[in-house]
Backbone:
């Protein structure tokens, strides 16, 4: 149960598992993409680590996805 603006918001255990699996899938896709981009970067141009831009772009997305999975963006359905 989470508190959001003074109202209790609860996530069912099934929903919590589903959201956790979605975040894990998102992280796995990001890691697999980076595992391709990093060697490709070193093959194409060793001087500039452009794969870092993909990492920098992905991190806030994963952090937001994880916050959603924890229920930080959920509202009380009765009062909203």
Residues:
């Amino acid at each position: 149960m989470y508190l959001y603006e003074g109202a209790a918001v609860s996530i069912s255990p099934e929903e919590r598992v589903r959201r956790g699996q979605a975040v894990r899938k998102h992280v796995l896709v990001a890691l697999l993409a980076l595992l391709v981009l990093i060697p490709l970067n070193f093959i194409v141009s060793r001087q500039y680590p452009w794969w870092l831009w993909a990492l920098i772009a992905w991190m806030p997305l994963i952090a937001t996805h994880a916050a959603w999975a924890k229920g930080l963006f959920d509202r009380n359905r009765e009062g909203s």
In short: The longest strand covers residues 2-4. The chain has a mean pLDDT of 86. Residues 13-44 form the longest helix (32 residues). DSSP finds two helices and two strands in the chain.
